[in-house]
Amino acid sequence: MTQTTGIRRVPRPKPESLRLALALAASGLPVLPLRAGKLPFGNCPACTDSACGDRPHMKAAGPCQCLAPCHAWAAATTDPRVLTSPAWATAWRQAATVAYHPGGAGLTVVDLDNPDAVAWAHQNLPATRTVATTRGEHWIYLGTMTSPNAVRPGVDIKSLMSYARWLGPGSGTMAPLPDAVRALAVKEPTAPHPTSSPATASAPAESGQCPHRSPAYLERGIAMAEKRIEEAPDSIHKTVYRMFLAVLSAHGRCGCLTDSHVARLFTAAQGKGETARHCADAWANARTALGM
Question: What global pTM score does this model have?
Answer without folding.
Answer: 0.58
